[in-house]
Amino acid sequence: MGTRGRLVVVANRLPVHRSGGSDRWEISPGGLVTALEPVLRARGGAWVGWSGTPGRAPRPFVLDGIDIRPVSMSDNELKLTYHGMSNATLWPLYHDAIRTPEFSGAWWSEYVRVNQRFAEKAAACAKPGDLVWIHDFHLQLVPAMLRALRPELRIGFFLHIPFPPEELFAWLPWRREILEGMLGADVVGFQTRSDARKFATAARRFAGTRSSGSTLRHGARCIIADAFPISIDFKAFDALGRDPIVRQRATLIRERLDPARKIILCVDRLDYTKGIDHRLRVYERMLRGGAVSADDSVLVQVAVPTRDKVAEYATQRATVEGLVGAINGEFTRLARVPVHYFSRSLRHRELAAYYLAADAMLVTPLRDGMNLVAKEFVATRSDLGGVLVLSEFAGASQELRGAIMVNPRDEDRTVEAVVGAIRMTDAERRRRMSRMRSAVRRHDVFNWSDTFLGALAP
Ligand code: ADP
Ligand code: F6P
């Protein structure tokens, strides 16, 4: 990676939060921050983003050597851009239109205005020679807007979610504008090769771009559009899995749930893309068909509520909670509840203890850009225990070949896959886990950021 210039990150959210209601800021734990913090420290840099609270932005400040540049967002702007254009138009459209996207001219106009604000903030803080790395679907117009303000900068853009197939992208009334926005970058990164190919196809059809492999020609400029699959801090999760206190906690979890029961674990944001309802129906079928009972199995679903102001999320929560209630109502035996449902976020160490305690981990989204939970589970299991059942519609399926792959809409075969997972022989389980661990170890989050920045650096 080139060492000249700093790194300026532009993302919807800042990597900081106020600690325990006080005025003190703390770095928030999370994949992107973990990946970029060492780079930001080594070469210096800034992070432009929203603080997470509506209203006037806090003043810029420096935290752990990172220049924090908050962008303001009023209640109304949040409603129109974050809840509206980002989470009720782009999110469902880019996830195979699992829910019908809504199209609103008012949301779009506000999205343009807010993207312009982010671009201006980035332009004001980037110094000559800096690399600017813009993230995700909330900010797809920022690359071209920033280029118009600062044509000399090297600009990268990474889309964390899938890019849709041409037929779906075509629905978007502002498809050309979105493409022109992303094509303002020098490097446009995607989670998978298939996403990068879909982008090139859309750019050819709707923006008159020419392409050859991963190189696109747009007007006089050349752009790289390629796959840069995101990952996790393998060493950190591996260490958690070996930590005696975390292991003790995992043993306690198994004892509390009853060591005679197979633990089937699921960890997600409560998003309709994650297939939580399909997977609950799979478990219900297993119970009804007698493949398992509440005496010999338990499904633990940890689901963090998310984006609750968007109507589809409230509906999904009601569906999931209705299913949990119905399954438990029908199949509970004395002191044996089949579905343990946590509607909250767990701290890292606690999450790792659940990963360690699990016999099978179900990661079965209907569509997912990558899915880091799957990689975290694998990295934690240095004991080579646990089987991963993984949706072929998660980006992670391209790398985690040792998983049992499923089509989550095919509930019959998913039943077979889960039963196969909890009955798998030791030897096969170890072989599969070992293969997946090598893949995540080789390709961790530091490798991800190095590769992207290597492609971006002049
Ligand atoms: P997404 O980006 O769609 O939320 P990912 O699986 O890629 O999905 O990333 C989710 C991140 O959030 C992971 O780092 C995971 O550990 C964390 N996470 C998800 N659910 C929970 C939970 N219930 N408690 C704590 N962390 C969670
Ligand atoms: O995966 C896309 C993503 O926007 C992540 O970047 C983010 O961590 C996650 O979804 C949660 O989204 P939100 O910021 O809307 O809570």
SSE layout and pairing:
Layout: E1 7-13, E2 16-18, E3 25-27, H1 31-43, E4 45-50, E5 61-63, E6 66-71, H2 75-94, H3 105-125, E7 131-135, H4 142-149, E8 154-158, H5 166-169, H6 175-182, E9 187-190, H7 193-207, E10 210-212, E11 215-218, E12 221-227, H8 234-242, H9 244-257, E13 262-269, H10 276-289, E14 297-304, H11 311-331, E15 339-342, H12 348-357, E16 360-363, H13 372-380, E17 387-391, E18 404-406, H14 411-422, H15 426-442, H16 445-456
Helix pairs in contact: 1-16, 2-3, 3-4, 6-7, 8-13, 9-12, 10-11, 10-14
Bound molecules: adenosine-5'-diphosphate (ADP) and 6-O-phosphono-beta-D-fructofuranose.
Walk me through the structure.
This protein has 458 residues and is of the alpha/beta class. The chain folds into 2 domains: 7-231 and 445-456, Rossmann fold; 234-442, Rossmann fold. It has 16 helices and 18 strands. The chain has helices at residues 31-43, 75-94, 105-125, 142-149, 166-169, 175-182, 193-207, 234-242, 244-257, 276-289, 311-331, 348-357, 372-380, 411-422, 426-442, 445-456; strands at 7-13, 16-18, 25-27, 45-50, 61-63, 66-71, 131-135, 154-158, 187-190, 210-212, 215-218, 221-227, 262-269, 297-304, 339-342, 360-363, 387-391, 404-406. The strands form 3 sheets. The protein has a 10-stranded mixed beta sheet, with helices on both faces. It has a 6-stranded parallel beta sheet with strand order 15-14-13-16-17-18, sandwiched between helices. A two-stranded antiparallel ribbon has the order 2-3. A hairpin with a 2-residue loop joins β10 and β11. α10 (276-289) runs parallel beside α11. The longest helix is centred in the N-terminal third of the chain and has 21 residues, at 105-125. The chain starts with 6 loop residues before the first strand and ends with a helix. The model has no long low-confidence stretch (mean pLDDT 95). Bound molecules: adenosine-5'-diphosphate and 6-O-phosphono-beta-D-fructofuranose. Adenosine-5'-diphosphate is lined by residues 31, 267-269, 302, 304, 345-346, 351, 370-373, 376.
